[in-house]
Amino acid sequence: MTVLALDIGGTKFAVARVAADGTFLDRAEHPVGQSPTATLRGLVADFAGPGLTGVGIGSAGPIDAAAGTVSPINIPRWRDFPLVATVRRFVPGVPVSLAGDAQCMALGEWWRGGRTSSSLLGIVVSTGVGGGLVIDGRPWTGRTGNAGHIGHVIVDPGGEPCVCGARGCLETIASGPGMVRWALAQGWTLAAGRPDARALTAAARGGARIPLAAFHRTAAALATAILNTAAVLDVRDVVIGGGVSAAGDLLLDPLRDTITERAGMPYLRDLRISATTLDRDAGLHGAAALALLAAGEPLREPS
Ligand SMILES: [Zn+2]
């Protein structure tokens, strides 16, 4: 049994043929290009072949899983783009499944990331903050396909307006741009170069006061959102991925400390917070898992 996994990012598309045990048979990656639809057609044509059981797609959002459409922010030509219907035309007769990229990251980390628990919360901290859930060994996508979207958990009701229309969402604080905005407002200056998340991380690593405080503030906001989510869902593992997570212990140490300090209920005291182990491949593994589940193939339990 072989499935095709597609990872639709804002700047590049990745594709892999994946065996039922999760092994990548081959893979490729392409920049989105002038015509995203042509790029997609080319990738699928190169990899699809006889014996394909299904296609799983993880896509940058917003997505509408029920309608099978996507509107990735960085691909302006795709607004309410019928991604599922389009891929179906490229591979007639093969079932196609779609989920958000952060949901695929969570599913991939749960399946192939060496975790041992039945339930996991995956969080992608990048230019935005996304998330996905695996509950009792199944991806949990919710009524509209948006379950796990932890970036819009409100952690500061009087806080900054969020792009979503609410105020004080986790994303306003913990995203790369949110952290940089706050640090600059506190008086952080950079001798040379662009003040972005990468520069902020380097400065924090060098011991600079404001950048370090920005990481502590992000850790505190993440801790609030994670503890509230875990209190409701009783997950054991929390996996952090995305560009900002490359800061590693700079983010994870204060996050773990804050969670230990604040956790009340016994089932929240043994939350395991870890960084992604699959990195960019997590999304492809998750997309493959989607296709396997849709084909009725049970995912091997992590062992
Ligand atoms: Zn929001």
Give descriptors for this structure.
303 residues; alpha/beta; Nucleotidyltransferase, domain 5; five-stranded mixed β-sheet; 37% helix; 21% strand; globular; binds zinc ion
The CATH topology of the largest domain turns out to be: Nucleotidyltransferase, domain 5
Biggest sheet strand line-up: 3-2-1-4-7
Structural class: alpha/beta
The tally of beta strands, per DSSP, is: 12
Oligomer: single chain
Strand content: 15-25%
The overall pLDDT, averaged over residues, is 94
* The number of domains: 2
Helix content: 25-40%
Q: Which architecture of the largest domain per CATH? A: 2-Layer Sandwich
Shape: globular
Main sheet properties: 5 strands, mixed
CATH domain class of the largest domain = Alpha Beta
Which regions have little confidence, pLDDT < 50, spanning 5+ residues? none
- The CATH H-level superfamily of the largest domain is ATPase, nucleotide binding domain
Radius of gyration: 19 Å
- Termini separation (Å)? 21 Å
> What is the count of DSSP helices, taking H or I runs of 4+ residues?
10
Unique bound compounds: zinc ion
Secondary-structure element string: EEEHEEEHEHEEEHHHHEHHEH
Short description:
This protein has 2 domains: 118 residues, 2-Layer Sandwich (Nucleotidyltransferase, domain 5); 161 residues, ATPase, nucleotide binding domain (Nucleotidyltransferase, domain 5), CATH 3.30.420.40. The chain contains 10 helices and 12 strands. The strands form 3 sheets. Strands 3-2-1-4-7 form a 5-stranded mixed beta sheet, sandwiched between helices.
